[in-house]
Amino acid sequence: MTAPPFILSSTSLVEYSGYWAEHPALFVAPAREQDPEKRALAVLKWFLSTLKQQYSSRNEKLGSEKKPLNPFLGELFLGKWEDKTGEIGDTVLISEQVSHHPPVTAYSIFNEKHKVRLEGYNGQRASFSGRTITVKQIGHAKYHLDSFNEDYLITLPSLHIEGLVYGSPYVELNKSTLIQSSTGYLAKIDYSGKGWLSGKKNSFTATLIKDSNPSQVLYTIDGQWTGDFTIRDARTKKDIDTYNAKTNQITPLVIPPIEAQGPLETRRAWGKVAAAIEKGDYEITGAEKSKIENEQREMRKKEKEEGREWQRRYFTKVEVDDKFQRLADKAGVVAEPEKTGGIWVFDREKYLKVKAEEGAANSVPVPE
């Protein structure tokens, strides 16, 4: 959707991948759990802890939801969450815009100390009806634990933008999402919001079951994904844990300084646009934004004339993702490659090649 400059955020959509791991301790917590049932619960808790950052944090910082900058093909956002204690280890983020038509962002987040990896991709389709903008997210995420050779398939929530009439837009999640594990545990999260007569904003209920005994609920979680929620053992009816999204502090993502970034890295590429937005200079915002967009159109035109395709730096398009398909069959989930420009996977060979090139340039050896 084309938006006028005055409702634009100064942040590109490619940066949103970083909201998955702003609580690194929760991100790696499942790797420390020996019991598969409790690991599945820890993955569910971590996922729920990401929702406030992914869908509400910008509203709090800016006063209302703004439309992010639409990334260009090949745009990159790179960084890491540093661990000063040595207990968690650094967690690395790689985010890349792998498709422009349709717009799709792919990401890989990994922690080498605990051998935890998350990768996925997503696109959005927005529609407007009445007083609400509805956004359907297309794609999925895969969470992997090396120590247990265990995988989790995570589907993405649909959302709608409320508060447009009052000039204070905010995100509300709707429908449901699933987390299917390779060990046979299935979590389902149902989202709801504040209605005209009842309900609370940003509410949800979640259940965890085992595929082999779907009638028995093992755990339930309910509350608000922007506030606090309670984890309950459904068999004993006892509360076993609580979480407060408002008080749980995030770990800031560390990114290279602008002068050390490459021309495709988002903060450098959109620097003039972001500065103009922050100043409220919408004339310069529109001019600088158009400049980037026109350059991209020329690049695509030239590629087409020369019969070549833009080479993704860290990700590769595949016909079939076997790891996804095994879990998707269990959960009744289907890939929609026609809506995301393909099925995208993190390419470790490409990553190692980039690291080797960087190492050669800086005389730094490539890590194992």
From TrEMBL:
SUPFAM superfamilies: Oxysterol-binding protein-like (SSF144000)
PROSITE patterns per the UniProt record, alphabetical: OSBP (PS01013)
GO term, biological process aspect, one: intermembrane lipid transfer
InterPro entries xref list: OSBP_sf, Oxysterol-bd, Oxysterol-bd_CS
GO molecular function: oxysterol binding
Gene Ontology annotations for the cellular component aspect, listed alphabetically: cytosol; membrane
Domain of life: Eukaryota
First and last residue of the signal peptide: none
Pfam families: Oxysterol_BP
Family: Belongs to the OSBP family.
Protein's name according to its UniProt entry: Oxysterol-binding protein
Lineage, uppermost ranks: Eukaryota, Fungi, Dikarya, Ascomycota, Pezizomycotina
